[in-house]
Amino acid sequence: MKLGTRGSDLALWQARLVRALLLQKAGVDAELVIIKTQGDRDQVATFDKMEGKGFFTKELEESLLNHSIDLAVHSLKDLQTQMPEGLALGGLIERADRRDLMLIRPEAVDDLQLLHLRNGATVGTTSARRVAQLRFLRSDLNVIPLRGNVPTRLRKLRNGEFDAIVVASAGVERLQLPLDGIKAYRLHESVFVPAPGQGALAVQIRREDSVVRDAVTSISDAGLADLIWLEREVLRRLEGGCLLPLGTCADSVGNYFRLRAFLGTGEPRKPRRFVIAGKHKETIVAQAVSYLHGIAAAPPEPAAPIRIWITREPARADEFCADCDPARFDVAAIPVFYAIRAGSREQQVQVMANLGQYQWAFFTSQTTVSEFADLLREAGVTLPPQIRIAAVGNRTARAIKHQGWRLDFISEVADALSLGEQFAAHPDATSGPILFPCGAKASADLEATASESGLRLDRLVCYDTVEHPDLPQTVMALPEPHAVVFTSPSAAKFLMARRALPTHIPVVSIGPSTTDALIAAGFPIVWEAVDRSLKGLAEVVHGLYPD
Asked: What's the N-to-C CA distance of the chain in angstroms?
């Protein structure tokens, strides 16, 4: 068989992998045929200045159609979702790390800034998706075009033409490129959404060639199919190619899927972005595409005002209410639970007396910060200056600063696995015990993940949540909502125990654990805030009910 490939170092690595797998699993020997594409010939023009589509695939596809080759290997993110008549996707080969990689010259690093970049840094990339996300996340950055293969881009960074560049982590990983003298940060998908299918390899074949199809099927990873379909089907229905500033990534979470998406618009500060979860792929994609098109993804918008419930007492829902125009939205802020002191008093006293053993304290919520601060005051002690503070989310960070404590690490990552990995990668992460104040119902996932990364979190339960005494009367007196915003798993549990909600209404979650609770409660679709904040929740509501 003749296996077509581009001639770059990365393309040849990928082609050699496929050739080796074909020989090993199908007993088929393949000859590599190097084909130069439009994207290879023109290393200067940016993609928006080049004609047509399929800048790295068209010539390979033409060679397939004229039988010059029998199969072609592509980076899946380069492959158009609409293929020429007669061609098909024969199989998906191993997916490497799908995240983007930020490579930064040491003098341009600022670990307390989003994306780890100093103010005004010059960043190189030509990807429309990466440009849109960089300009949204950090409007101060100077983003300029960067073409060339991965080694060429890295050389330009080392030469000082850029402070930083963004590349696919998979390419650097596969080529095992040396990064000495360069700071490398993998950008978590919750912050920087990768391209549909990024990190996966695709083998393209002629549709009717059953011999080649059988060989390729034997080396394919069938487990990738559902997630790749979710990511690329959104792209297909938007009729976009590499010029569309779209990022998507999908995950399987127990018995349901979670899809994250980012679409740049004409206004850099107003992209369309969301996380959607559900058990049925078709429903997820249909609603996702409607959201990205600016069409109400919820049931037909009712006559204004739209009744929104949020599970927060009014005093703590102020940011959300301020972001919801009262002419369009009737927001009911519902006190669902309140915090009470809980946990082992003996342990609390012991920890207060031995705070000096800790180098870090890890906080995941405002409530934890305030309850821990109360423990300090009651014990008549202050936080030792050597203790570094880590926070999850901006509201937690603000609560920490309100206490007058120094903040050393902040993350918007919500899931325990990624959060543990991110913290473990911090240059000042410690092998010693880390204080972890929390609520009685806090999941053990974060401690388990930290342990796998060589970190030890010492759980200190400070509080528990109990149902607010006014909840039964409040929820029964309110008219049925058009949408409900849930701010914690406990809020979902307490509210739904007092009033059954129809599962067809849109529900919005503040994070993964709350999403888990809502999926378990029978909601077919759950919308999740990208930013775990009241403003993030309001962003989702506005996306569901666009102007």
From this structure: 55
